[in-house]
TrEMBL record:
<keyword id="KW-0342">GTP-binding</keyword>
<feature type="domain" description="AIG1-type G">
    <location>
        <begin position="195"/>
        <end position="387"/>
    </location>
</feature>
<comment type="similarity">
    <text>Belongs to the TRAFAC class TrmE-Era-EngA-EngB-Septin-like GTPase superfamily. AIG1/Toc34/Toc159-like paraseptin GTPase family. IAN subfamily.</text>
</comment>
<keyword id="KW-0496">Mitochondrion</keyword>
<dbReference type="InterPro" id="IPR027417">
    <property type="entry name" value="P-loop_NTPase"/>
</dbReference>
<dbReference type="GO" id="GO:0005739">
    <property type="term" value="C:mitochondrion"/>
</dbReference>
<feature type="region of interest" description="Disordered">
    <location>
        <begin position="383"/>
        <end position="440"/>
    </location>
</feature>
<feature type="domain" description="AIG1-type G">
    <location>
        <begin position="479"/>
        <end position="673"/>
    </location>
</feature>
<protein>
    <recommendedName>
        <fullName>GTPase IMAP family member 8</fullName>
    </recommendedName>
</protein>
<dbReference type="GO" id="GO:0005783">
    <property type="term" value="C:endoplasmic reticulum"/>
</dbReference>
<dbReference type="Pfam" id="PF04548">
    <property type="entry name" value="AIG1"/>
</dbReference>
<dbReference type="GO" id="GO:0005794">
    <property type="term" value="C:Golgi apparatus"/>
</dbReference>
<feature type="domain" description="AIG1-type G">
    <location>
        <begin position="1"/>
        <end position="190"/>
    </location>
</feature>
<feature type="compositionally biased region" description="Basic and acidic residues">
    <location>
        <begin position="383"/>
        <end position="413"/>
    </location>
</feature>
<keyword id="KW-0333">Golgi apparatus</keyword>
<dbReference type="InterPro" id="IPR006703">
    <property type="entry name" value="G_AIG1"/>
</dbReference>
<dbReference type="InterPro" id="IPR045058">
    <property type="entry name" value="GIMA/IAN/Toc"/>
</dbReference>
Length: 673
């Protein structure tokens, strides 16, 4: 029986032994052998049966029971290892064989090195001395080994190396041949608790790193994980692998913001199969949306699901020397969430997939903290109870929608009646619309050359009886100063953006669970010969919109009436419809503010060669936001603050925006808000 990891040359060795291409053997990124296969042939007067097996680290262990069923027929195990590529994975195969087939199996094991042509004059003894781990492995099988060159075209060489192998088998195993690995030996090996299959369901909002975490756990790219404006995972997907000798099945799910029924009905069986739920939260800015995840799990999977939930923080590389305990102390809401899952959490750095310890530590936490409860799994009964509650909620929702439609129809009827009454009584309507103190003129835009002329000032003064708030109504390029207010959710990168624009560390910008900016702050610098004042603001979601508005009111006014523009900061990544930032601007600053707004994308480095246009094409909602503002969009990489070209290209966009809209979001807009 040939055993070993995928790609070591097991099938080719089987063909060499039998002297015929009976097993499929070719270069491939995927395992070619997916189940046990046996072929027989007479070699030197002896019938030889070769059993080829899938790789020890293949995606599933479904073939393991098949292997064990045939193992008692085996005289010799050939552990195939490719010369020159001895890895930790190869080294662990001895432990794997012992776990699955017992200590006795090693007495019937010979290490078969493939790639003998790679030695190039070096003896195998010299090769062994280069690796103490390889020597330890050979000691475990009493230094029984042989070398194959499966690429040789010489029939004589091929036949000779097979003959030498059979001689070594006879010499080293002696009178054990004929007994082989017996059925009694096979049946003595019980599946240990740590070999039981473990099923993990990964939950969380889009863009938190669920798919990447699944890949880290399985040690391969099992799920599609990339930076995208849209959720990459559209449906439930499951992939399996072997982690430390245990079969692990990972169920990747769409973001929690996806429709709950799509998630639950995607695969009804999967909803009650998981042993453990991993709630993935990205280290950084902990938002109200993250805080609602526990309620979402309780609502859709039931109260019992929290007993089997571990919070998995992604982005561990962002801690930068700060301990996770220090990070957690910065957010009381995050501490409350962890309290709901009995303080169970783990940290992943999905950019460092070579670090096996982070997966091993997670498995230990699952086994030590949860396996004692795994006699209870998320049962069918519990699932049915949750589904019933969801159906009742859906019925109540339909009833509420029906009442809302009736109220809307009644309201529209009243409006139509008011309009009809106004048409019949135009004089009454005119008196109602007569201006009191101010006249607000609105209409379509006209040519900048006209509105920026002296005639425009005279016309405005004559028509309104008011005054022009600027004593420099001319080309924005000549304006002495400029105010830039940064808007966006917590963690979008506003403070870092302000530092990049000003070319210095004016604002505190660091990795934190809570919002770093608690109050409005200003910073000044000369950029391109122009005095720039940047106004950094707290995130939209901090304390509600009313308190946010009160905090920024003072900064909307300027004694010298220098033009004010808004930069709506959005990080490149998954942008959900929950990020209703345009609505927030309308509610706090008014519709006019959008005309003086530019969407500024941060984390430009995460585009990974993808153009910003390709990124935007993936999300219609994001394109709608850009269509709602007057200044288009710009991209910054705040990790390269010394690259002034990205700021130099932003300033002309601001000037163009001011030129198009008549210089600034004026004081009357501020007063109206």
């Amino acid at each position: 029986m040939l055993v070993g990891k995928t790609g070591s040359g097991k099938s080719a060795s089987g063909n060499t032994i039998l002297g015929q291409n009976l097993f499929r053997s070719e270069a491939s990124p995927l395992p070619l052998t997916e189940s046990c296969m046996s072929q027989s042939k007479t070699v030197d007067g002896r019938k030889i049966t070769v059993i080829d097996t899938p790789g020890i680290t293949s995606e599933t262990c479904e073939w393991l029971s098949e292997w064990k069923n045939k193992a008692h027929l085996v005289d010799v195990f050939l552990l195939v290892i490719q010369l020159g590529r001895f890895t930790e994975e190869d080294n662990s195969t001895i432990n794997w064989i012992q776990k699955n087939f017992g200590e006795e199996a090693l007495k019937f094991t010979i290490v078969l090195f493939t790639g003998g042509d790679q030695l190039k004059g070096k003896t195998v003894e010299e090769f062994q001395r280069e690796s103490t781990k390889l020597q330890t492995l050979l000691d475990a099988v009493e230094r029984k080994y042989h070398i194959f060159d499966n690429s040789t075209s010489s029939d004589y060489k091929r036949d000779n190396q097979v003959k030498e192998l059979t001689q070594k088998i006879g010499k080293s195993l002696g009178n054990k041949i004929g007994y082989g690995y017996t059925l009694a030996m096979c049946e003595k090996v019980k599946t240990p608790p740590e070999m039981l299959e473990l099923i993990l369901m990964i939950l969380g909002k889009p863009g938190t790193g669920k798919s990447a975490s699944g890949n880290t756990i399985l040690g391969r790219n099992a799920f599609k994980a990339e930076v995208s404006a849209l959720p990459v995972t559209k449906h439930c997907e499951s992939q399996s692998g072997v982690v430390d000798g245990r079969k692990i099945t990972v169920i990747d799910t769409p973001g929690i913001t996806s429709e709950m029924y799509e998630l639950l009905s995607e695969d009804k069986q999967k909803a009650h199969l998981p042993h453990v739920f991993l709630l993935v939260i990205q280290l950084g800015k902990f938002t109200e949306e993250d805080n609602n995840k526990i309620n979402w799990i309780q609502k859709n999977f039931g109260e019992e699901a929290l007993k089997f939930t571990i919070v998995l923080f992604t982005g561990g590389d962002q801690l930068k020397g700060k301990t996770v305990e220090e990070f957690l102390q910065e957010s009381t809401k995050l501490q409350t969430l962890l309290h709901c899952v009995e303080e169970r959490y783990h940290v992943f750095d999905n950019n460092n997939t070579s670090d096996d310890n982070q997966v091993k530590e997670l498995m230990k936490k699952i086994v030590n903290e949860l396996m004692k409860n795994l006699g209870y799994r998320y049962t069918h009964k519990e699932h049915e109870k949750v589904k019933k509650a969801l159906r009742q909620e859906e019925e109540r929702k339909k009833e509420r929608e029906g009442r809302t439609r009736n109220q809307k129809d009644r309201f529209e009827g009243e409006i139509e009646a008011d309009i009809s009454d106004a048409d019949e009584n135009p004089k009454k309507q005119q008196n109602q619309n007569k201006p009191k103190n101010k006249i607000h003129i609105s209409g379509k835009s006209c040519m900048p050359q006209f509105v920026l002329g002296v005639l425009a000032v005279a016309l405005v003064t004559y028509m309104t009886g008011g005054f022009c708030p600027y004593d420099y109504l001319h080309d924005p390029a000549e304006l002495p100063g400029l105010r830039v207010m940064l808007l966006g959710r917590p963690g979008a990168g506003k403070s870092a953006t302000g530092n990049t624009i000003l070319g210095r560390e004016a604002f505190k910008a660091e990795f934190s669970a809570g919002s770093v900016t608690k109050y409005c702050e200003t910073g000044n610098s000369v950029v391109g010969g122009k005095n720039i004042t940047v106004i950094d603001t707290p995130g939209f979601m901090n304390g509600g919109l009313d308190s946010w508005k009160e905090g920024v009111d003072t900064y909307l006014h300027s004694p010298d009436h220098s033009p004010l523009v808004f930069l709506l900061v959005i990080p490149v990544g998954t942008f959900t419809e929950n990020d209703d930032v345009v609505k927030h601007i309308r509610e706090t600053l008014g519709e006019e503010a959008l005309k003086f707004t530019i969407v500024l994308f941060t984390r430009g480095d995460q585009l990974d060669g993808k153009s910003i246009e390709m990124f935007l094409n993936e999300n219609a909602h994001l394109k709608d936001i850009i269509g709602s503002v007057g200044g288009g969009y710009h991209v910054l990489n705040n990790k390269l603050p010394t690259d002034r070209s990205q700021v130099e290209t932003l300033i002309p966009k601001i000037k163009s925006l001011l030129w198009k809209n008549g210089n600034s979001w004026a004081d009357e807009n501020e007063e109206a808000v």
